[in-house]
Amino acid sequence: MKKMDEMGMNKSTQNRGRSGLVAALDVGTTKVCCFIARPEAKRGLTVVGIGHQVSRGLRSGGIVDMEAAETSIRATVEAAEQMAGENIRSVIVNLSAGSPQSRLVSYRISIAGHEIGDADMRKILNPGPLLDGQPENHEIIHTIPVGYSIDGNKGVRDPRGLYGENLGVNLHVVSAATGALRNLDTCVARCHLDVEDRVVSS
Description:
This protein has helices at 6-19, 66-84, 118-124, 178-190, and strands spanning 22-27, 31-40, 44-54, 58-59, 62-63, 90-95, 101-110, 138-150, 153-156, 166-177, 194-200. By secondary structure, the protein is an alpha+beta fold. The chain folds into 2 domains: 6-97 and 179-200, ATPase, nucleotide binding domain (Nucleotidyltransferase, domain 5, 2-Layer Sandwich); 101-176, Dna Ligase, domain 1. β4 (58-59) and β5 form a beta hairpin. α2 (66-84) packs across α4. The longest helix has 19 residues, at 66-84.
């Protein structure tokens, strides 16, 4: 379960560190685009490769013809790789398929008066409790904390290092239809690429 939440960003950072490159794949109804960038200390990300093709096998951002969609994605990625002079192994996929939905979820956990640490943060950001009320056949893409509270006191930006009995969080949860996500993952895998992360664009 990914997006640009804290856990997803950590995973992306680890993969980028190994490859030295960041690759983004935008799969849309009218076109497929791929950008390859290299992190630089002073300039941030520098784009070194761009590829784009007319979308085939897609409708409303979802895959309706696996082979045609694979051909479009392969051609797009190969064009970006050729321009960059590098091969990529994984991509961050920007998607609009799967009828994305968002909702605000609030809940709290007991911290029994101890100092709040990273373990408490991992526990409260665990997507398990978010499955209650989750739309049927939807998968969580992003869990984005928008605010914390301690013992009912709101406005806490970073609770680590503070004390209290209960830690609360408001999360912006974004999900999309599982079938559409699996189709896209499968198509990307057929292009010999791993899905490093997903980003919902609508």
